[in-house]
Design goal:
- The complex is a heterotrimer of chains A (174), B (192) and C (206).
- Chain A contains eight helices and no strands.
- Chain A is mainly alpha-helical and 174 residues long.
- The longest helix of chain A has 22 residues.
- Chain A is globular and about 50 Å long.
- Chain A starts with 10 loop residues before the first helix and ends with a helix.
- By secondary structure, chain B is mostly helical.
- A two-stranded antiparallel sheet of chain B has the order 1-2.
- In chain B, helix 5 packs antiparallel against helix 6.
- The N and C termini of chain B lie far apart (49 Å).
- The model of chain B has no long low-confidence stretch (mean pLDDT 93).
- Chain C has a five-stranded parallel β-sheet with strand order 1-5-4-2-3. In chain C, strands 6-7 form a two-stranded parallel ribbon.
- The relative contact order of chain C is 0.14.
- Helix content of chain C is 47%, strand content 13%.
- Classes of the chains: A mainly alpha (174), B mainly alpha (192), C alpha/beta (206).
- At the B-C interface, helix 3 and helix 9 of B face helix 1 of C.
Chain lengths: 174, 192, 206
């Protein structure tokens, strides 16, 4: 892994590539991309393992993710898609010389602080994504391209919140 | 006629195979564009790196124009493509919570998988955080259920609310995106 | 790279402008032949047969107001609402039948059941009206056709089982009409639209 990593490609071309992939999803399976739903599916399955499938399926929050009991994630489109995302991300990073065990962070931030921010931020993103019925992949991108009202509400509020809070979070990234 | 799964041409196992292939391509382009790197993503909010905006909106416009025209050319039944339901208040509040924590975590659910796959432990951290967050949501669901389902509008498009045709909506969004790209270009030139 | 960007922008602008121009006509773009309904109906006579055979795996829910329920309901039906159905203890093999007097009520109930993964749901298509017309209080017109008479004989037998009163020799315009007599009702179209919206909430999610 001593190769110089290749540069990133033009963001517009990457975007067009993703747009074509999203279009392929509409055409092949009649739905857009997504991510947060796969995490919900995994949590639902875990809940079923711990509590038993019947008790888990009685919870209205968990039930929609258990149409096939504990093994539901194994038939969940989003779970398979995210598995593909990891494979694709790995392959691209590998071929570009960007595979690296690392904790990416701002220059003034330690590993522990960064990891806490990652887990904590991730947790609250998980809550936010549940309320919003999706995340940047599912709502902003896929729903946005279909002009869904809720998706655009999400885009606006998501970006607005990020910009408003940026000064407060400067320490993390500078 | 497409979508293939909605017109009986592709079964559920075929759909799962398609999921992996589509996901692979998605992850590939995300990584190629640099969206697997948290500092780069955060740069969007400090206006130092506008990659997120460029990638997201060029993807959105591409898919939007593509879907519109495939529908018009009779290749795609756009009315059979899943359109998410709108819940005004929960999605606005969820968006705020999500955006604030996207800034803190530096990665979103999809890009965290890309980062983790490339070896970034912070990517893995975000993935674990997501699982915890969903779990906490489930635990408290009884208390927040009414808020969660508040203000439903059903599956509705901007063009339905505005009373304009889909083509007009597509044209307006494209124009806004192109204007945004021009602005991004100018911002970057000023910085350089 | 910049020339490529400009070229792409021009392509996008052209495609977008063409979209706006091509679509400047009507706002209404309904697709004929929409996807087949995912909801199954049960006719009142079939439901009656099930009840008469003492089917243990059948639960009938009346989604109307308590007053309406008290006045009359399908024998053996229980009162419910969409909210109560969400928490109602239901064995997985239970066949649920619901009826109401508003489309929206049916849709909400179906959504509630869909969310808890109970898919074995049938809807009494014309609700209590159909039950009364075809089972409980069947009417036979004077000078009936042979088909009408046969249908009436079947219904009369069920009617007696449920304590109703079948009546023959009724003026033709007093005989209840519905989809079973071939009467086209615009409400049927409304029901189809409601059915489509329920099918759409089959969990996809992002």
């Amino acid at each position: 892994m001593n190769r110089t990593p290749r540069p990133y490609i033009d963001p517009y071309l990457a975007g067009i590539g993703i747009g074509v992939v999203l279009l392929a999803a509409y055409v092949v399976v009649g739905q857009g991309l997504g991510a947060s739903g796969a995490f919900a599916s995994v949590v639902a399955s875990g809940t079923a393992v711990v509590q038993g499938a019947t008790r888990a399926a009685a919870s209205p929050a968990v039930a929609p993710y258990l149409p096939h009991g504990i093994a539901s994630p194994l038939q969940d489109w989003l779970v398979f898609e995210l598995a593909g995302v990891m494979l694709g991300g790995f392959t691209s990073a590998w071929l570009a010389g960007r595979l690296r065990r690392d904790v990416e962070r701002g220059s003034g931030v330690g590993v522990r602080q960064r990891m806490s921010a990652a887990v904590g931020g991730g947790a609250l993103m998980g809550v936010g994504a549940k309320f919003a019925r999706g995340c940047t992949s599912g709502q902003a991108l896929s729903g946005g391209a279909l002009l869904s009202v809720g998706s655009w509400i999400f885009i606006a509020s998501c970006f607005a919140a990020g910009y408003v809070l940026a000064p407060a979070a400067r320490r993390l990234w500078r | 006629m497409t979508p293939l799964t909605e017109t009986g041409s592709l079964g559920s196992s075929g759909a799962l195979v398609a999921a992996i292939l589509i996901g692979f391509a998605f992850g590939w382009f995300l990584e190629r564009g640099g969206l697997g790197s948290a500092p780069k993503l955060a740069g969007q909010f400090y206006v130092t790196d506008l990659t997120v905006f460029k990638v997201m909106f060029s993807a959105l416009v591409t898919a939007m124009l593509g879907a519109f025209w495939l529908d018009r050319l009779g290749v795609l039944r756009l009315d059979l493509v899943y359109l998410p339901e709108t819940f005004v208040v929960p999605q606005a509040l969820g968006g705020v919570l999500f955006g604030a924590d996207f800034l803190v975590a530096g990665l979103c659910p999809g890009t965290s998988c890309v980062a983790a796959a490339a070896g970034r432990r912070d990517g893995l951290g975000v993935m674990i955080g997501m699982l915890i967050g969903v779990w906490l949501f489930n635990l408290t669901f009884d208390r927040i259920a009414s808020m969660y389902s508040a203000t439903p509008l059903g599956a509705v498009r901007l063009t339905d609310l505005a009373g304009v045709t889909p083509g007009v909506g597509v044209a307006v969004v494209t124009a806004l995106a192109l204007a945004g790209f021009a602005v991004a270009n100018r911002i970057e030139r000023r910085r350089a | 790279m910049n020339r490529l960007h400009v070229a792409l922008a021009i392509v996008a602008a052209f495609a977008a402008a063409a979209a706006g121009v091509i679509d400047r006509g009507s706002v209404d773009r309904s697709h004929p032949g929409a996807r087949a309904a995912a909801i199954e109906f049960i006719s009142a006579p079939d439901l009656a047969q099930r009840i008469m055979s003492g089917d243990r795996d059948l639960r009938v829910f009346d989604l109307r107001t308590p007053d309406a329920f008290a006045q009359f309901h399908v024998p053996g039906a229980h009162r419910a609402t969409a909210a109560s159905l969400a928490g109602e203890p239901l064995a997985p093999q239970t066949q649920v039948v619901v009826y109401a007097d508003a489309r929206q009520t049916i849709v909400e109930a179906l959504q509630a059941l869909e969310k808890r993964n109970h898919r074995d749901v049938l809807v009494l298509r014309e609700g209590l009206y159909e039950w009364l017309s075809r089972v409980q209080e069947p009417r036979l017109a004077s000078s009936p056709t042979p088909e009408e008479r046969a249908e009436f004989e079947r219904a009369a037998e069920m009617s007696r089982f449920f304590g109703g009163v079948p009546r023959a020799g009724v003026p033709r315009d007093e005989v209840p009409q519905g989809y079973w007599t071939g009467l086209p009702r615009s409400e049927a179209l409304l029901m189809d639209a409601a059915v489509k919206s329920v099918a759409a909430i089959r969990r996809r999610g992002c």
